[in-house]
Amino acid sequence: MLIETERMIVRDFRNDDVYDLHEILGDAETMKNCEPEYHFEKTQKFLEEFCIEKRGAVAAILKDSNKMIGYILFKSWEENVYEIGWIFNKKYWRQGYAYEACSELMAYGFREMNIHKIVAETIDVQKSVRLMKKLGMKCEGIQRSHTKDNFGNWADIYLYGEIYTD
Questions:
Q1: Residue 155 CB neighbour total at 10 angstroms
Q2: pLDDT above 80: residue 141
Q3: Residues 106, 72: contact at Cβ < 8 Å?
Q4: pLDDT value at 150 more than 90
Q5: Do 43 and 51 touch, CB atoms closer than 8 A?
Q6: How many Å apart are CA 15 and CA 68, to the nearest integer?
Q7: Radius of gyration of the chain (CA)
Q8: Strand partners, 158
Q9: Per-residue pLDDT for 80 more than 90?
Q10: Which of 1, 51, 62, 105 is in Cβ range 3.0-4.6 Å of 13 for a Cys bridge?
Q11: Percent residues over pLDDT 90 in the chain
């Protein structure tokens, strides 16, 4: 996969992305609404086994520096339904990069891959739900007190989706 936006390239992961990926997955603040931060070996194994071998995610790369600043989950959930999710390097938050990359990836999925529906879920009602809405996704439900966060507190899961329409 290779998608170009104004400021970014969205492409398949490569082994040399490991250090930039670890800047993301190894940071406790960044991973607060996902899971505990990764140690380097876990990042390396995740990159090799999930991102590269299973092709479960793509990398968001800055054009001007060739730095990988975002991990975007993009995998088949079931036939013609994909799941999307994102984790970006905190140094690049609130600059529109996640929206830019994810909106183009969703458009590519609908247009080029004939995906019928794209879904997302989060416990982060602030940043992630706001981005899901900006991406045009609609709330499909809330699973109340369904999972525990990284601090052991019960958290709601917010489910969003977007269906392709011509």
A1: 19
A2: yes
A3: no
A4: no
A5: no
A6: 12
A7: 15
A8: 122, 142
A9: yes
A10: 51
A11: 95
5 alpha-carbon distance from chain centroid: 16
Rounded to a whole number of angstroms, the distance between the first and last alpha carbons of the chain is 23
Confidence class for position 137, pLDDT limits 50, 70, 90: very high
CA–CA separation, 87 vs 69, rounded Å? 9
Sign of CA dihedral 138, 93, 31, 127: negative
DSSP the chain: -EEE-SSEEEEE--GGGHHHHHHHHT-TTTTTTTSSPPPHHHHHHHIIIIIIIS--EEEEEETTT--EEEEEEEEEEETTEEEEEEEE-GGGTTSSHHHHHHHHHHHHHHHHS--SEEEEEES-TTHHHHHHHHTT-EEEEEEEEEEE-TTS-EEEEEEEEEE---
Predicted TM-score of the model (pTM): 0.94
Q: Band the pLDDT of 165: cuts 50, 70, 90.
A: confident
Q: Which amino acid is at 128?
A: S
Q: What tokens were used for 146? A: 């369904």
Instruction: Report the alpha-carbon distance of residue 74 to residue 55 in Å, rounded.
Output: 8
